[in-house]
Write a structure and sequence with these properties.
Blueprint lengths: L1 H16 L18 H10 L3 H24 L10 E7 L9 E7 L1 H8 L9 E3 L8 E5 L4 H12 L3 E6 L18 E5 L12 E4 L6 H6 L1 H22 L2 E7 L26 H21 L3 E6 L2 E2 L10 H10 L4 E4 L5 E3 L1 E2 H13 L6 E3 L4 E3 H11 L6 E4 L14 H7 L7 H17 L1 H4 L4
Helix pairs in contact: 5-10, 7-8, 9-11
Length: 450
């Protein structure tokens, strides 16, 4: 045992005595001198690779340089792919409303018709480079003015959502759009909030005739205030452009004639008409405060007396009253002495003005009306000439707060919107008479009204 232990100790000492130089310790592999550049060049120069790369670059460059020139040349053979052409006619001769047609034509036909790439004055716009299709909401869109506005927006290719509670609006006014995928109708009262995603908001919702707004004056105030607040809040949330249709009634019984937009008005704040007059004045205030305080894009239109097809038959407004009474062989009712003056614009002129204002970069307010001024007796004579020369006139006491004079100064609209009315009273009245005659003689509306 002692010998074994001694031998192992001796071996251990021998192991310790082995010089360390015979087995060098581990060390990281020394970095070789970088030769990446010579190797890359050697790789490129081998087997003519550099030549192939240069040839490829030349071919690609030639293609991209010549490609625009080749695409602009008409092929001498073969059949070119047809493109679509839009033919847009915004004003028809009969009604002044919009019409739309889309007809496919070949490239060669389009070029010859439009003079190559110059499309000015042709009214033809190739699909793909036309205006952006908008998504638009029209409150009160089933009413008299609103339904004509919807016609124009649909005709120019927009998607339209109509919101109406049918207090004065009628489904028949927009029924011809039922089934159109670009048209939606929602029964809703703007006094309650609504959530939509749209680009533009035309806010027309509010009873506009004395008979209707006096029927429920509190509801009229709520529509003007709460309804306008709700729609302005919606415009703020979604970044939509907002147009308020105000009224010439904000001028009240004016002391200035004709009325400019700078005139502040002469309104009775506690009268029977103030629910409408002051309601619209408040709506204008809200609109401007949202514009100044929240950065909402807004437009304000002050609408003067408007007439045309689809007016309510018995709404108390002078034109509809006279026309309906003459057709029914009733005396024409003149309130007061008949010397009050009004100006009357045809509905298509108003619609064109509203669209021009919405598409402009001007806030307003803008007067939209026809500066042609008529007394009530003069209007009665025009109605008699158009419908029944034998009609008689019946005088009744005037209503409270009825304005004595009303005539718009439209200088601002002419200069900034390039807008002015085109249809005279004698041209537009027969179109309205035709519509009223059909509706009054219709069994559904005429029964009990004769």
């Amino acid at each position: 045992m002692k010998q074994l232990h001694k031998q192992s100790s001796t071996n251990h000492r021998r192991d310790e005595e082995v010089p360390t130089s015979s087995t060098p310790p581990y060390s990281p592999k020394s970095l070789k001198h970088p030769r990446s550049l010579p190797r890359s060049l050697n790789y490129l120069l081998k087997e003519q690779r550099l030549l192939f790369i240069i040839v490829g670059i030349i071919i690609a460059s030639t293609f991209f340089i010549l490609q625009p020139s080749l695409s602009s040349l008409n092929p001498s053979s073969g059949h070119p792919q047809p493109t679509s052409r839009l033919t847009v006619n915004y004003e028809s001769e009969d009604t002044g409303l919009s019409s739309y047609s889309a007809t496919p034509v070949k490239n060669s036909e389009f070029n010859s018709a439009s003079g190559g790439n110059n499309n000015k004055g042709t009214g033809r716009v190739p699909v793909g480079i036309g205006r952006k299709r908008m998504r638009i909401v029209v409150t009160g869109g089933a009413g008299f003015v609103g339904s004509h506005l919807v016609d124009k927006l649909i005709a120019r290719g927009d998607d339209v959502i109509v919101i109406d509670n049918f207090f004065t609006g009628r489904r028949e006014n927009v029924m011809h759009h039922f089934g159109n995928p670009r048209f939606e109708l929602i029964r809703h009262d703007v006094v309650e909030p609504i959530l939509l995603e749209v680009d533009q908001i035309y806010h027309l919702a509010c009873p506009a005739s004395p008979v209707h707004y006096k029927y429920n004056p509190i509801k009229t105030i709520k529509t003007n205030v709460m309804g306008t607040l709700n729609l302005l809040g919606l415009a703020k949330r979604i970044g939509a452009r907002f147009l308020l249709t105000s009224t010439s009634e904000v001028y009240g019984d004016p002391l200035e004639h004709p009325q400019k937009e700078t005139y502040w008005g002469h309104v009775n704040p506690i009268g029977v008409r103030s629910c409408y007059d002051e309601g619209k004045r408040t709506a204008e205030t809200l609109t401007m405060d949202y514009h100044r305080g929240a950065g909402v894009e807004v437009r304000i239109a002050r609408i003067f007396n408007t007439y045309g097809p689809r007016m309510c038959l018995d709404d108390g407004r002078v034109v509809s009253n006279f026309v309906a009474q003459a057709i029914r062989k009733q005396p024409l009712t003149v309130y007061g002495d008949g010397k009050q003056t009004r100006s009357f614009q045809y509905v298509s002129d108003l619609v064109n003005g509203l669209v021009a204002l919405m598409e402009s970069e001007h806030v307003g307010p803008f007067n939209l009306g026809n500066p042609g001024e008529f007394t009530m007796l003069e209007l009665a004579e025009v109605v008699k000439e158009t419908i029944d020369p034998s009609a008689t006139i019946e005088y009744k006491p005037n209503t409270a707060d009825d304005p004595h004079k009303r005539k718009p100064d439209i200088t601002k609209a002419k200069e900034l919107l390039n807008w002015e009315p085109k249809v005279s009273l004698r041209e537009g009245l027969p179109l309205m008479v035709s519509d009223f005659r059909n509706r009054i003689l219709n069994e559904d509306e005429g029964k009990g009204n004769k």
